[in-house]
């Protein structure tokens, strides 16, 4: 019933009809399948589950119905890790039963019985999933392209187009998983798969769509770091978080803050390059040579930042003039630059590099 989900999640902006063929150039592909999945997510009026970073749903496919609980995990540069509990249910069941999940799945002080009585549907997320297996690097991955929509209410639908790559089996040690996915990302980039950053889960996006409020940037986490490596790591994490909010809100003020954060991150990376911090792979004595990789990261980030600076000014002007079409046009330019500069690579590659450095 319990499974630890480890997967990459990206937005997808292109023709998905040839994905199977593209991945056949990366590794061995098999078991091509299509599923139609209807998902209803549940929470209380007070969002008790969302407040502890948990997601609860009923999923129905062509020949199955199940209830799923996903609990708090972590997102490391697009690599999502979290525990997941799945239980089969009857087709007539229309509300998930929290009491059927293990007691230790939720916090001790979580009033499960009270929450159960107050559960209600909060959104539907329906999509067609095209999936297949990928054998690569002594590992088996499940590649899934999802196309559909998030429906918060009848008049508020959010299009869904994303690629998920979940690790199913591997002989790679857990300490090397970040490197494993980093190598996989390099293959994705070299095959020009049109990927975009997608920091938040489907459920998280649905919750933000419900709120319809403009989030504010909180830079206080940067002040809590003890050393320079941790500071840069916190910059990367904050950039992912704020960008995820921007993808939902299209907020011009928030994007200007993101642009400033990218500028600050570039300064940090240039300092990192000058200082030439030592980096080591666990179990090896020789330091890792990373300057070339860091130079590529800086080049891609600088190219994206140039577009961000230009578009950010236009976006603010459009906001002042209540020009919604202009804001939409700016948003499309940002995402195009993000795709062209392969920004989906940056968070994971940087997290891996920073994890190897001596603090």
UniProtKB/TrEMBL annotation:
Q: What organism, scientifically named, is this protein from? A: Succinivibrio dextrinosolvens DSM 3072
Mind telling me which InterPro entries this protein's record contains? Answer: CYTH-like_dom_sf (IPR033469), CYTH_domain (IPR023577), YgiF (IPR039013)
Q: Name one GO molecular function term.
A: inorganic triphosphate phosphatase activity
Q: Which domain of life is it from?
A: Bacteria
This one is known as Inorganic triphosphatase YgiF, contains CYTH and CHAD domains
Which SMART domains does UniProt cross-reference here? CYTH (SM01118)
- Domain (CYTH): residue spans on this chain: 3-206
């Amino acid at each position: 019933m319990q499974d630890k989900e480890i997967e990459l999640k990206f937005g997808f902006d292109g023709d998905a009809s040839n994905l199977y063929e593209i991945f056949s150039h990366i590794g061995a592909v098999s078991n091509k399948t299509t599923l139609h999945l209807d998902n209803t997510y549940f929470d209380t009026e007070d969002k008790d589950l969302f407040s502890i970073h948990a997601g609860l749903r009923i999923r129905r496919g062509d020949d199955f119905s199940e209830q799923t609980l996903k609990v708090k995990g972590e997102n490391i540069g697009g690599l999502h890790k979290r525990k997941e509990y799945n239980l089969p249910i009857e087709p007539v069941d229309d509300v998930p039963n929290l009491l059927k999940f293990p007691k230790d799945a939720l916090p001790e002080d979580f009033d499960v019985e009270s929450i159960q009585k107050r559960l209600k549907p909060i959104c539907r997320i329906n999509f067609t999933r095209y999936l297949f297996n990928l054998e690569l690097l002594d590992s088996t991955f499940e590649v899934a392209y999802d196309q559909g929509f998030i429906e918060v209410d009848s008049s508020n639908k959010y299009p869904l187009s994303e690629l998920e790559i979940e690790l199913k089996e591997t002989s790679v040690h857990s300490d090397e998983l970040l490197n494993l996915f980093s190598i996989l990302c390099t293959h994705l980039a070299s095959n020009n798969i049109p990927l975009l950053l997608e920091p938040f889960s489907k459920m998280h996006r649905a919750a933000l769509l419900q709120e319809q409020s403009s989030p504010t940037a909180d830079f206080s986490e940067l002040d809590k770091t003890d050393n320079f490596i941790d500071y840069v790591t916190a910059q990367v994490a904050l950039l992912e978080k704020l960008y995820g909010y921007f993808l939902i809100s299209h907020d011009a003020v928030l994007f200007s803050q993101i642009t400033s954060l990218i500028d600050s991150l570039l300064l940090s990376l240039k300092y990192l390059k000058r200082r030439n911090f030592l980096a080591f792979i666990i179990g090896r004595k020789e330091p890792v040579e990373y300057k070339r990789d860091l130079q590529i990261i800086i080049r891609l980030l600088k190219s994206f930042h140039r577009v961000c600076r230009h578009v950010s000014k236009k976006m603010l002007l459009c906001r002042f003039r209540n020009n919604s079409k202009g804001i939409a046009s700016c948003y499309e330019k940002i995402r195009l630059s993000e795709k062209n500069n392969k920004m989906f690579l940056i968070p994971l590659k940087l997290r891996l590099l920073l994890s190897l450095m001596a603090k």
